[in-house]
Structure formats: C-alpha cells, structure tokens
Amino acid sequence: MPHMIWKGAISFGLVHVPVQLYPATQSEKVGFNLLDKRSMDPIGYKQINKNTGKEVTRDNIVRGFEYEKGKYVVMTDAEIRAANPESTQTVDILAFVDAPDISFLSLDTPYYLAPDRKGEKVYALLRDALKDTGKVGIASVVLHNKQHLAALIPVGPALALNTLRWGDEVRDFSEFKFPDEDTKKAGVTPKELEMAKRLIDDMSDTWDPTKYHDTFKDDIMALVDKKVKQGKVAEVMKVEEGGEHKPSADILDLSELLKRSLKKGAPAKRGSKAAPSDDDTGEETARPARKTTRRKRA
Q1: Whole-angstrom Cα distance, residue 264 to residue 84?
Q2: What's the CA gap between 168 and 106, in Å, rounded?
Q3: Given CB 3.0 to 4.6 Å as the disulfide criterion, which of 66, 135, 255, 289 pairs with 245?
Q4: 146-155 and 158-164 as β-strands: parallel, antiparallel, unpaired?
C-alpha cells in the first residue's frame, strides 16, 4: 500500500466527499549511483560558487530570483512562505468540462483519491455521475504547499486526481512551424490519406499497458543479475592511504585473486612468516590495488 499524502474532501456545491490522496504511479526507472572507483563509496555533491570554483557553506546560501540576466532579487524563506497559498485539505471543484477538451499536453502527475470516513456512497455517486455525463471536474488543490490546477477523472472503480500544467506552461503552437491543418494545403492527396487510414486500422488494438515493457530496464537488470552470479561485484571498503592495500573479502572475482596469488609467489608454509624481500617497496605493493580498481569498473 503506497503512503497516503493527505486526507481531506472533494467539494462541489454543498457536497463534500471525504477522501484520501495517494500517488497513482511509481518510478521504475533504472538509476545509477556515482561511486569512488577506489573504494566503491558513494559520491555526494558540493555546493560550489560557479565563478570562483570554491565551496559555499550553507549559511552563505540565499535564494534569488533572476529578473534580468545576472541581476537578482533576494528572497528570504519567510517571504517565500508568505507568498505560498494557504494549505487546505480540499479539492475545490471549479467547473465540469467535457473530458476530450483537456489536452494530453496539460496532464502532469496522477493521484488516486480513495473514499474516507464512510464516504463510499457519495464517492460512488460522484464517480458514476462523471462517467454518465462524460465530464471531468476542474479543481484547485494545494499539494506540498504549492497550488495546483487539477482534473478529477473517473477511472474504473476509482476517482483519479491528475494535476494539470497551467496554461502558460504549455508552449503555444505558434512557436513552431507545423504543416497546415488543411489536408490539401499540406500537400496530402486523398489516396495517401486513405492508405494511411487503412494502415492505422490494420494496426489498431485495444490499450493494454502490460503488453509494453521498458526494454532498457530489462536489459540492465539482466546484466546486473549476470554480473552478480559471476561474482563481478564490488562493495564499499576502506581506502588506506599509503602502505600496502591488502586484498579484501569484498573482492569476489576468483580469477583476480588467483592472478594476485601467482604474481606474489608461492605462499609461506603454515605457521611460518614470510620474510620481506629487498625489493618489497610501497610502489610494488600498490600495483595490485590499481589492478583491482580496473577490475571493478568492468
């Protein structure tokens, strides 16, 4: 069960529908961590002055709005908070519109609204009324201290709340050069249009999202699984500055361990301690560590 974001009510007219808001999607994207190749430690980031290249401490960082190139108005956290809309727990319906009138370009982030506090009947009433009329509700809602325009949409047994982009966030068609909407002016012949329609008809199918897969994610996960089974993995281990870098149990590549053993020579007899040779220098003992690094990058 996903984590509930907030609970409140859908409000239209004098009707209030108690609901709970949940995220309707989950990220399944493949992500990679930046690591120190010497130790497999995660790499963080520093806040750097872009002009001097020096690190800036948190107490010297302020928020600024760039009103002209290179010119800023500094805003305090208190001023920003005061400008934020008052947080409410209400999805205020502003109007009902025909569902096809909302462009896909305006859709942003989807959420599920689940009935709360024995509000199942009025929830079902609103859902079914929207289905029967072919309408969706246009609403105002505050999420995470930010005001959003949203569409209240019936989806199967659920009511979904899909945040919408504001009108000035969607680029106007006039910013681009598109073919004329008049078919003849666009140079398309009736025969070409008819063939295109037939091709679309031949390829038409019912929408089933389970038929489609993120093949990049599938390939990456298959490769990860293969490397794990082959022992080609690396774990976080401490980097020792100077001196000999001892082989660690974290290195699970057996062939690399065997190569190291052969280069180091035959092991000393059990119970005895091998005496260091004259050419056992720090430079020599550092070489296996560099080889290990290259192996981990594979």
Answers
A1: 66
A2: 10
A3: 289
A4: antiparallel
User: End-to-end CA distance of the chain, in Å?
Assistant: 38
Q: Which amino acid is at 150?
A: A
Contact present, 4 and 21 (Cβ < 8 Å) = yes
Contact, 159 vs 100, CB < 8 A? no
CA dist., res. 31 & res. 27, Å (int): 10
Residue 56 backbone dihedrals phi, psi, to 5 degrees: -110, 130
Tokens of 270: 């059990």
- For the structural domain made of 6-28+84-169, what CATH number should be given? 2.40.290.10
Q: Is the pLDDT of residue 177 over 60?
A: yes
Q: How far are the Cα atoms of 12, 75, 256 from residue 287, in angstroms, in the given order?
A: 73, 53, 13
Domain boundaries, the chain: 6-28+84-169, 178-202, 236-298
pLDDT tens digits for range 207-230 = 998 888 888 888 888 888 888 888
What angle do the packed helices 254-264 and 282-297 form, to 10 degrees?
A: 160
Determine the Cα–Cα distance for residues 138 and 162; give it in Å rounded to an integer.
10
Name the token pair of 121: 């009947």
The whole-angstrom separation of Cα 191 and Cα 194 is: 5
Q: Residue 197: left (phi > 0), alpha (psi -120 to 50), or beta?
A: alpha
User: Residue type at 234?
Assistant: A
Q: State the number of CA atoms in the 13 A half-sphere of 85 facing the CB.
A: 14
Q: Do 253 and 231 form a contact (C-beta atoms < 8 A)?
A: yes
- 16-75 per-position pLDDT tens digit: 888 998 988 776 666 677 777 777 777 877 888 888 888 888 888 888 888 888 888 888
Instruction: With beta carbons less than 8 A apart as the criterion, state whether 9 and 115 touch.
Output: no
